[in-house]
Design goal:
With 196 residues, the protein is α/β, with parallel strands linked by helices. The chain contains nine helices and seven strands, in the order E-H-E-H-H-E-E-H-H-E-E-H-H-H-E-H. The chain folds into two domains: 120 residues, 3-Layer(aba) Sandwich (Rossmann fold), CATH 3.40.50.300; 67 residues, no CATH class. Strands 2-5-1-6-7 form a five-stranded parallel β-sheet, sandwiched between helices. The chain binds dephospho coenzyme A and adenosine-5'-triphosphate. Catalyzes the phosphorylation of the 3'-hydroxyl group of dephosphocoenzyme A to form coenzyme A.
């Protein structure tokens, strides 16, 4: 069974994914795999350079801050970048998933609903947190400005849209309560994964 895990920037997707991992659930972090593919795939590198120019890469390494400065302020360029990267991530996930021999896996995707990838999951978990907490957390974690965090938030659906679509919601304010919530959710997902 594939459980899609998503949430807006700074909501705590990665934090919740780590809690599932500590329980022993295999976790696929799309952001991380996307970055790896951007570094290792000549086809992706070529496509991004064609789209954004030579400055998008330094050698084989993508220039993330340069790419972000363009795509998070230009919806058309973001869509074209996604069209280059997402199909490769989808293929990579399928190969990874086929090797997993467990009741369920977690697929963490920042833009699960925005890309329609929730339809490829058996159920979905949304991580939420108050917007001001999310902005503060990312500013502290990434040492970036409020405006830079907001430029990413503007390219993501608001929580009230995602809540309508999610099967489960983890309101990640207090970490202790989040851990308890994820442990309970794990047992629910185990039961759901077993054929009746
Ligand atoms: C634009 C890039 C290079 C910026 O890299 P950078 O390290 O600065 O940011 P990072 O990847 O950590 O993203 C920070 C947050 O931005 C948000 N974000 C990332 N990609 C997207 C996107 N395509 N649309 C909306 N929000 C996004 C997420 O909340 C993410 O967690 C990178 O985000 C990227 O390549 N994005 C396009 C590929 C993608 O969609 N990856 C995510 C799922 S596969
Ligand atoms: N409940 C919490 N209380 C305080 N800080 C938290 C909480 N949950 C997560 N954080 C911190 O907030 C930051 C963002 O969390 P995390 O990286 O898990 O979010 P994310 O949704 O994966 O963000 P991104 O979309 O940027 O990958 C991290 O530094 C994390 O340690």
């Amino acid at each position: 069974m594939i459980v899609g895990l998503t949430g807006g920037i700074g909501s705590g997707k990665t934090t919740v994914a780590k809690i599932f991992e500590e329980i022993g659930v295999p976790v696929y972090i799309a952001d991380k795999e996307a970055k790896l593919l951007m570094e290792t795939s000549g086809e992706i590198r070529g496509g991004i350079i064609e789209l954004l120019g030579e400055e998008a890469y330094t050698g084989n390494l993508p220039n993330s801050s340069y790419i972000a400065s363009i795509v998070f302020n230009n919806k058309n360029k973001l869509d074209l970048l996604n069209a280059i990267i997402h199909p490769a991530v989808k293929k990579h996930f399928k190969e990874w998933y086929e090797k997993q021999k467990v009741p369920y896996v977690i697929k963490e995707v920042a833009i699960l609903f925005e890309t329609g990838s929730d339809k490829e999951c058996d159920c979905t978990v949304l991580v939420t947190a108050p917007l001001e907490d999310r902005i503060k957390r990312v500013m502290e974690r990434d040492q970036v400005s409020k405006e830079e965090v907001e430029s990413r938030i503007n390219n993501q659906w608001p929580d009230n849209e995602k809540i309508k679509l999610a099967d489960y919601v983890v309101n990640n304010i207090n970490l202790v309560k989040t851990k308890q919530c994820v442990t309970t959710l794990h047992h629910t997902l185990l039961a759901k994964s077993r054929p009746v």
